[in-house]
Each structure stands twice: as structure tokens, then as C-alpha cells.
């Protein structure tokens, strides 16, 4: 059975370790551990505090058993254990306090099970077998394999067009107004603002996933993601800016696979450089929400990204969202922009600096902080369209593209040259 663990999803991690306070409990545990095919030497004398000290300097096992008998504040100590315990570890607590409230609180904190002393061999055997089952079939509860899942990647054509603001607002809408369990994956590993917009600490979940993709499974997702509310969880990072991103993208694909099993919706805040470096990220994405604005640079890059998507992600339906719309303040007109990209803009979101400042001040997503504002109506329409994509297979988005292609091709070079001449003509001669 131990060889099964080494070749399983936990990679080279030790399969089991225990920290037990008393000899009588250890005497019951060791024969069961041998029966499971593990090393009895991994049954250590000492309780939860010993476990914390040990795991602060060594790797966590796949299954960890800790004794709470000598702990004066079990919940607080369990939280301290979580600080040194790597995501993906199944923790079984042992104790002598027979309290339903404590049991529920421990389970809520992420503990897999709580066993009462005195321990019995059958009790231990059942608990360890159930812990093993977590890795044998993570998150595959009945019916979950058939869950309908919709994924959207939100990509900005330029920096500052508001792609991240839209991504967090969409995730909040899916979770709160559409009541869909939603995962938000912020792939701006160094400068992402997803957690910041939700007033959360990013944690180490995404960094751990990138460093150890073999550890990604259902339990890892459950423990590594940060909960914003009952239906919304985020996986993000705030990596040191002197640490370059070293990955082949395997972790991202595995994360997407686990999200499909665990959530109804996935929102990926996808920086342009990640889009180009890891095209396989879009293999299972239903909608690419391309956020742009009415500028020459955005028009040029919208054309380039649409062309790239056609060649590299033919299964993903592009949806054009023009953000920060201001009457009379655009570099080019909406009609000229649509002519240049040869398709219609699907949605327009007005510019509202006051609403953006309000969201930042409240530590909330743009949509949550401004629910009553007329400026958020397009955001609700975008969310509704994406939720419905699974039903119509993106037909409405494709139709928008066909309508746009009926427009004449707009020559950006000529337009840019004319714009420069107009500007020069308007300047007073020296």
C-alpha cells in the first residue's frame, strides 16, 4: 500500500506521521500503521505542539495525526498547525474532550476527523482508510463528475483597461446573484489585485501550486483557496518581485481541472503575457472576455489577440467588452473601432471614477460596492451572457462577430497618420 502512495497524487511525500501524547495510544496505533504498510517509526511521542515544531522544519506527510490532549486551546493551536502544514495534508485530530461544538469547530477549521480516546484498532483503521480515500478519488462526490461548468478568461488588451476589475466583479456576480459556486484564479502572480479587491490576504496557495504541481488535488484546492463567501473562493499570490515565474504551466492546467470538478464557474484573470506563454490555459475555456477601450493601441491589440485566439483557442468564444466609455473623450469612434476589429463590441461599460473610488474605499468589488448604480447594469448583462453560454454554445457571441465582419476594414495606419496631421494643423504655428 505504501508503493501506491509514492506513485499517487502526493508524489514523494511521506504517507503518514503521528504525534501522540501517551504510550497506551501509541501501542494501539503502531500495529494499525504497520498493517497499512507504513513505518511505525513515524508514530512520534508528543502532541500538537511537537507536531508544529517538527513540521516547521520538515515536509508535511500526506496524512497527519495529532493529539490535542495537552492543548489548552485546541482551535488556536490547530490554526498554528495550519501555518506550518503544507496544503494537501489530511489532518486527523485525537483528543479526550467529548464536545459536539468542539468537533464541529475542528471540522470547520479543515480537520478531516476527530477521534476520541481511548483509541481502538478498528476506529483507527476506519479513520486512516477514509483519509486514504481522499487521495484515491478527490472531490468526486456523487454527481459532481457531471456538473455543468463554465470557464471565462478575462484578458485586457492594454494595461489599465480594467480587466481585473471586471474579473472580480464577474466572479462576485456568479457567486452572489447567480448562486453558482465560483473559483477566481488570479494569474498575475506578482502584481495581482484579485484578493485586494475582495479585501483578503492572497495566501500561499498559488505559489505552492506552481512550486509543487504534483500536490494539486481536490483537498489541496479546498485548503489552499481563500474564501470570500460561501460561493466564492480565490487562488492568487503576491510573489516577491525579485522572484521570476518559473513554471511550464502544468500547475495551471491541473488547477483548471480541479476547478471543473469542484465549482460551477471559473473566472481566470489572465494577463496578456500569460496568455501568450501558456496558450494551453484556454483549452477548456468557454468564453474569452476581451476588455478593451476606444484607443488606437487597444484597437491594434484587439485585432492581434482576436487573430491569436482564432489560431490557438478556436473552441473559446471571444466577447468584446469596451470599458471606461466616455462620451466625446475617445481617441477613435465606436464605429471606427468596430470596423477595425471587424466585429461588433458586445458590451459597453461607462466610465465612473466615483464608483471605482467607492469600491476601493470599501474594500469591495466594483459591482458589490455600487449595486444600485446604473453603471453596473452592463456588468450584470455580461455575467448573464456567460452563464448562458453553456446552453447556446456561444451562438450569440458568434453572431456578434459575424455582424461586425460586415463592416468595411478600417485602416489604423491611415487613421493614425490622419490623426497626427489633424493635431499638427490644430497647433498654432511658431
Quick rundown:
This protein has 19 helices and 13 strands.
Can you walk me through this structure?
Residues 17-132 form the Response regulatory domain. The chain is of the alpha/beta class and 430 residues long. It folds into two domains: 16-135, Response regulator (Rossmann fold), CATH 3.40.50.2300; 150-405, 3-Layer(aba) Sandwich (Rossmann fold). It has helices at residues 2-6, 23-35, 48-55, 74-84, 100-108, 121-136, 163-176, 194-197, 205-211, 218-224, 250-262, 272-277, 296-312, 334-341, 353-362, 366-369, 377-392, 395-405, 412-426, and strands spanning 16-20, 43-45, 63-67, 90-95, 113-116, 150-156, 182-186, 226-229, 232-235, 265-269, 287-292, 317-325, 347-350. The strands form two sheets. The chain has an eight-stranded mixed β-sheet with strand order 8-9-7-10-6-11-12-13, with helices on both faces. The chain has a five-stranded parallel β-sheet with strand order 2-1-3-4-5, with helices on both faces. α3 runs parallel beside α4 and α7 (163-176) crosses α17 (377-392).
Low-confidence stretches: 1-11, 137-146, 398-413, 415-430
By secondary-structure content and strand pairing, the structural class works out as alpha/beta
Helical coverage, percent range: 40-55%
Q: Give the overall form.
A: elongated
Please report the total strand number as a whole number.
Answer: 13
Q: What is the CATH architecture annotation of the largest domain?
A: 3-Layer(aba) Sandwich
| CATH fold-level topology of the largest domain | Rossmann fold
Instruction: Bin the strand percentage.
Output: 15-25%
CATH homologous superfamily classification of the largest domain: P-loop containing nucleotide triphosphate hydrolases
Measured distance between first and last alpha carbons: 86 Å
Strand arrangement, major sheet: 8-9-7-10-6-11-12-13
> Please, what is the average pLDDT?
80
Helical element count?
19
Oligomer: single chain
Amino acid at each position: 500500500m505504501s508503493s501506491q502512495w509514492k506513485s499517487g497524487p502526493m508524489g514523494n511525500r511521506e504517507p503518514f506521521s503521528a504525534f501522540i501524547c501517551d504510550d497506551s495510544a501509541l501501542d494501539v496505533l503502531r500495529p494499525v500503521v504497520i498493517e497499512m504498510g507504513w513505518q511505525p517509526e513515524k508514530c512520534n511521542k508528543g502532541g500538537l505542539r511537537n507536531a508544529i515544531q517538527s513540521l516547521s522544519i520538515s515536509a508535511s506527510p500526506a496524512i497527519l495525526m495529532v493529539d490535542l490532549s495537552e492543548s489548552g486551546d485546541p482551535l488556536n493551536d490547530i490554526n498554528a498547525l495550519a501555518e506550518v502544514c503544507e496544503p494537501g495534508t489530511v489532518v486527523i485530530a485525537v483528543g479526550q474532550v467529548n464536545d459536539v461544538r468542539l468537533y464541529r469547530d475542528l471540522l470547520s477549521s479543515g480537520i478531516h476527523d476527530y477521534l476520541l480516546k481511548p483509541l481502538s484498532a478498528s476506529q483507527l483503521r476506519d479513520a486512516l482508510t477514509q483519509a486514504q480515500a481522499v487521495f484515491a478519488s478527490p472531490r468526486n462526490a456523487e454527481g459532481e463528475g457531471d456538473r455543468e461548468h463554465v470557464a471565462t478568461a478575462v484578458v485586457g488588451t492594454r494595461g489599465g483597461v480594467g480587466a481585473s476589475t471586471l474579473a472580480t466583479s464577474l466572479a462576485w456576480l456568479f457567486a452572489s446573484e447567480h448562486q453558482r459556486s465560483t473559483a477566481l484564479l488570479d494569474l498575475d502572480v506578482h502584481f495581482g489585485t484579485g484578493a485586494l479587491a475582495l479585501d483578503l490576504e492572497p495566501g500561499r496557495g498559488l505559489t505552492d501550486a506552481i512550486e509543487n504541481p504534483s500536490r494539486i488535488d481536490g483537498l489541496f484546492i479546498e485548503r489552499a483557496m481563500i474564501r470570500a463567501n460561501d460561493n466564492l473562493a480565490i487562488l492568487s499570490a503576491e510573489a516577491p518581485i525579485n522572484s521570476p515565474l518559473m513554471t511550464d504551466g502544468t500547475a495551471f492546467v491541473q488547477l483548471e481541472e480541479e476547478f471543473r470538478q469542484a465549482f460551477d464557474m471559473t473566472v481566470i484573470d489572465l494577463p496578456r503575457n500569460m496568455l501568450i506563454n501558456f496558450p494551453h490555459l484556454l483549452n477548456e475555456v468557454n468564453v474569452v472576455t476581451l476588455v478593451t477601450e476606444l484607443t488606437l493601441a487597444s484597437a491594434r491589440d484587439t485585432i492581434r489577440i482576436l487573430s491569436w485566439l482564432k489560431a490557438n483557442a478556436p473552441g473559446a468564444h471571444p466577447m468584446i467588452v469596451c470599458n471606461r466609455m466616455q462620451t466625446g473623450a475617445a481617441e477613435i469612434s465606436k464605429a471606427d473601432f468596430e470596423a477595425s476589429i471587424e466585429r461588433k463590441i458586445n458590451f459597453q461599460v461607462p466610465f465612473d471614477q466615483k464608483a471605482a473610488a467607492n469600491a476601493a474605499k470599501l474594500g469591495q468589488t466594483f459591482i458589490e460596492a455600487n449595486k444600485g448604480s446604473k453603471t453596473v447594469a452592463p456588468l450584470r448583462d455580461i455575467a448573464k451572457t456567460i452563464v448562458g453560454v453553456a446552453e447556446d454554445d456561444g451562438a450569440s457571441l458568434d453572431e456578434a462577430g459575424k455582424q461586425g465582419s460586415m463592416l468595411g476594414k478600417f485602416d489604423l495606419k491611415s487613421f493614425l497618420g490622419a490623426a497626427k496631421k489633424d493635431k499638427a494643423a490644430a497647433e498654432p504655428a511658431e
